[in-house]
Design goal:
4-stranded antiparallel beta sheet, NE1680-like fold, single chain
């Protein structure tokens, strides 16, 4: 099993709602994590949500679960939804 790196991420929508999620990558690269966070927010209709390097930061590394590994292989990153995320 491979090792992935988790970036704890908080975004604020235009309406003031907080969206909490993890960006999971195969490399420990904060700029990529931030770019992928913005890409994902855009894909869920939150293109104007605010996310910065202060609220998208490296948290820990872990053995990559199969579901996340498949997402990373397909798109370069995975999103693990936490609070305020669409289902």
């Amino acid at each position: 099993m491979s090792i992935s790196h988790v970036f704890d991420t908080y975004a604020k929508t235009e309406q003031g709602k907080i969206i909490h999620f993890d960006v999971v990558l195969n490399e420990q690269d904060q700029q990529k994590a931030l770019n992928y966070a913005k890409q994902w927010l855009n894909s869920i209709g939150e293109k104007n949500a605010t996310v910065t390097s202060e609220n998208c930061y490296f948290c820990h590394s872990l053995e990559t679960p199969a579901e996340l590994s498949q997402q990373i292989e397909a798109q370069g990153f995975a999103i693990y939804k936490l609070e305020g995320c669409p289902k």
